[in-house]
Amino acid sequence: xxxxxxxxxxxxxxxxxxxxxxxxxxxxxxxxxxxxxxxxxxxxxxxxxxxxxxxxxxxxxxxxxxxxxxxxxxxxxxxxxxxxxxxxxxxxxxxxxxxxxxxxxxxxxxxxxxxxxxxxxxxxxxxxxxxxxxxxxxxxxxxxxxxxxxxxxxxxxxxxxxxxxxxxxxxxxxxxxxxxxxxxxxxxxxxxxx
Length: 194
Description:
- By secondary structure, the chain is mainly β.
- Helices cover 6% and strands 71% of the residues.
- It has one helix at 2-12; strands at residues 23-38, 46-58, 63-81, 84-104, 109-129, 135-158, 161-172, 182-192.
- Strands 1-2-3-4-5-6-7-8 form an 8-stranded antiparallel barrel.
- Strand 3 and strand 4 (84-104) form a beta hairpin.
- The radius of gyration is 21 Å and the shape is elongated.
């Protein structure tokens, strides 16, 4: 058991010969989990799961391109839907965005900022009336453009492994059912180079 622990430590320790400014292509996936807060009283805070892939050509302090897929769910209250005075159901959002940004800061702690554009798929709950006065709640998908601005920190435990935290602001280009198109997210996660 001690041998395995020493082997794991030897593999995980940074290589002192690695030049952090060396120009190499890095593909850096990240996974983060957090909360998405909508600026609308009718939509509760929801779970936010962010996954992204950064492409950059220097280890630290460099520009990057980012492709992201974010998904979130929240409870939504709709009033006066199909003759029903109140409907509370899940609102599902999926954001697919592409953009760029910059990393800067000392070696272990990097400040990260990015701007991204893309589309948002929103699964809006709707009420359908069936036979015999029965009702079912279904999801109706709406597609709109979205912009995302992110500011975060990365703390590098090892040259290719970092803990991340990120604050995001989102603007949907079209209102969703008369709701505020603005939402804010906060996430914690991990990123590594492959």
